[in-house]
Design goal:
Number of helices: 5
CATH superfamily: lambda repressor-like DNA-binding domains
Distance between the termini: 41 Å
CATH architecture: Orthogonal Bundle
Structural class: mainly alpha
Radius of gyration: 15 Å
Strand content: under 5%
Amino acid sequence: MSNATFCCFQVSDLCGNLPRLMKPSELKALRKQAGLTQDELAGLLKRHRMTIVRWETGQVKMDKTKALAVRAVIREYMAGVGK
């Protein structure tokens, strides 16, 4: 796969920060890496724990906007823990 260049940007540069779907295994790995339980992540996202369970098991697909929000919340949480 080639990266076309437009002006001074590559397509991959332009798409890098766009929301993308999150696989169930990615969500679970990120949550565990942050040291969060399903209950704790649900609280941070103001969701029910069963929503997290359904996302992690693939019973319900997370849309791109929610995936972006989850990544941001986990990143923010991890930055705060490190202080």
